[in-house]
Amino acid sequence: MALSAAGIRFKKMPMTDQPAPNITLPHRRLKLDTLVRLRWLAVGGQSAALLVVYVGLGYSLPAGPAFAMVAMSAWLNIFLKIRWPSAMRLSERAATLQLAYDILQMSGLLLLTGGLGNPFAFLLMAPVMVSATGLSSRYTVVLGVLATVCASFLAVFHFPLPWPDSEDFRLPVIYSVGIWIALVLTLGFMAVYAFRVAEEARQLADALTATELVLAREQHLNALDGLATAAAHELGTPLATIYLVAKELNGEFETGDHRGEDVALIRSQAERCREILKQLNSLSSEEDQTYQRMPVAQLLEDVIDPHRGTGVAIHSTQNGESAEPVGTRNAAIRYGLGNLVENAVDFAKSRVDVSATWDDTTLSISIRDDGPGFSVDILGKIGDPYVSVRGGKSPQGSTGGGLGLGIFIAKTLLERTGAKLLLENQAPPDSGAHVRVSWPRSTFERSVGVDETSF
Q1: What mean pLDDT is predicted for residues 279-303?
Q2: pTM value?
Q3: What average pLDDT does this structure show over 385-414?
Q4: Phi, psi values for residue 232, rounded to 5°
Q5: Same domain as 156, residue 108
Q6: Which residues, at least 6 apart from 54, have a Cβ–Cβ distance to it below 8 Å?
Q7: Of 252, 268, 290, which marks where a domain is finished?
């Protein structure tokens, strides 16, 4: 919006396809308390298993070293709880070191209790699964390699599996090889599966965070309107006093006295300030329906205007069977439509058509371009975060960054206002993409929530 009386112009910030670089998203920073709790669970399970086998069943095993390894994990947990607060988030490197310790500790217990012949050998995967859901692929691969190396070592070197003293239990070599292959393949599959599922959740969280940032930035600009009104109210009294005193002093000086000219200048500037504050004060007035309400034609012009002069012809048409719909100045609608138009301009060859049609029940806004259209293989995925390719590469100098997070943000914002989106390719012989946004007319013309979007 522009405040011409005050000579102030607020520039609409561009919507990018990535979160702001100075925002730190903590999705890959595990809490210390999470790892400590998981390790306590492992300590309890390992202790119970050793007690059942050694005391309950009476099987022979190196009980001293085995319980010492369990105690080492318990003491590590106690040290971490004393040294650092539980709520602290670990760096990826620190979390990887702790998970690597868990793999080595579990490998040590398996070394003492039968190697891969131990039914609990598959617990070697647990730290890798934690890494796959909470850390980057780089550190997950490192832990996966460590677990594979440990499994390979345990397949060859290990103490006998605890068994009654009267019997000697040995696994056939081919069966041991099968267990190793099964463990490694399961480790790889489960790690990739868990990482992909967690990565999709992280991308969605990042995208929603970026959407919140976009809305917060727009609402911050809108809040300046209220601040301007408050400032106008507070400054009105001292400016009136200055104006009155200057008016009275104006008659105290003779003609030609430079002090009289100064007083006249002060009076004129005070009068100008009063006029500016009067206009600022009127911006948020409930009586100023021109500012509070926006017809469809003005909405389209506001959305299209920033993209004129880009080398692509933008044509706007409006057609309806009844009176033109008039809605509120909704930040979500302007940002959402603006981003759709921006993407159309980025991929168009020479022309973009933006049209609005309406009747007594529905308002539809269509955006068409003469570009390559949507790629068939991603047509069903458009609207998901980070889907970033049309029917070809993004044009040179593109500002939209492709159909990635920007389309997700636009879709999210518009759907929150009650709109429905249809994204398709134009029917032959025409080429290019067609995006249609439609609202129930009663929803678009609501008079509540001016320039606000609930999130």
Answers
A1: 68
A2: 0.51
A3: 58
A4: -60, -40
A5: yes
A6: 61, 63, 162
A7: 290
